[in-house]
Write a structure and sequence with these properties.
alpha/beta; UDP-N-acetylmuramoyl-L-alanine:D-glutamate ligase; about 35% helix; globular
């Protein structure tokens, strides 16, 4: 068989398996891509809460990045939980010279409401990682925090672009209404991706899974708009099937393999 495209996730570990590198690797596999991983933090986490966070030493993170990129033909990188300024810096330095697609999901708060990014790391994320990424995928609260603003408005995406982002996918999951709409802003214009809003509490890991699916499509050679379109449709199906999993007692995960097994 042909060699599979390879994507790398640089993110935190979710012991409950619904988000973080566990969700990323599931999303890569569901989209037909081989996944490698660099663990930045270890969380004690389930569907109800994050009870502990341990940042991986920066030299170990650097060694993981070097080990993967020096051996595997990685076509796309998804970046998730970075937690501290030191981790932001080591990841930015580790990706110097990487010429594939970089998708940054600016993970800040877990579905349970627990913090996954230190306050002092936001400035580092904006200064070091946002300009490095080919796409950033903030939800509405994350977009506001990146900009140091209280709320989002019609100009939020454009202001994020001015931070140095090459493209922005502003996700509408935290909005209200019967339709959930995401907006992709890039130098060549804007595109809207909409789907009926699904009434479910089982949305743990949606942001991780969405950004990873986009990275997977880019690893397969898709242009960014087509990658977002494919990932958007897949994620909608994963959310629609989430209630069938019945995992945990809190915010359960989406069903990454809804196209393969029920």
């Amino acid at each position: 068989m042909a060699h599979p495209p390879i994507a790398l996730t640089i993110a935190g570990s979710d012991s409950g398996g619904g988000a973080g590198i566990q969700a990323d690797l599931k999303a890569f596999s569901a989209r037909g891509v081989y996944g490698a991983s660099v663990v930045t933090a270890i969380t004690a986490q389930n569907t109800q809460a994050v009870t502990a966070v341990h940042a991986v030493p920066v030299d170990v993170v650097a060694a993981q990045i070097d080990a993967v990129l020096s051996d595997l033909d990685v076509k796309a990188v998804k970046i998730g939980m970075l937690f501290s300024p030191e981790l932001v810096d080591v990841v930015a330095r580790g990706l110097e010279g990487f010429d594939g697609t970089v998708v940054l999901d600016p993970v800040m708060i877990a579905k349970s409401g627990d913090a996954l990014l230190k306050d002092e790391a936001v400035e580092a994320l904006v200064g070091r990682m946002v300009p490095r990424a080919d796409l950033i995928t903030p939800n509405l609260p994350e977009a506001a925090r990146l900009l140091g603003e209280e709320v989002v408005d019609a100009g939020t995406g454009e202001r994020l672009m001015k931070l140095g982002a090459k493209a922005v996918l502003l996700k509408g999951g935290h909005a209200t209404g019967d339709v959930c709409a995401d907006v992709l802003l890039a130098p060549d214009g804007a595109r809207r991706f909409a789907a009926p809003r699904i009434a479910t509490r089982n949305t743990h890991g949606t942001g991780c899974s969405y950004s990873s699916a986009i990275a997977a499509e880019c690893a397969k050679g898709a242009a960014l708009p087509e990658a977002v379109e494919a990932a958007h449709g897949w994620l909608h199906g994963a959310i629609r099937a989430a209630d069938d999993l019945r995992v945990g007692q809190g915010h359960g995960p989406v069903h990454h393999f809804h196209e393969l097994w029920a």
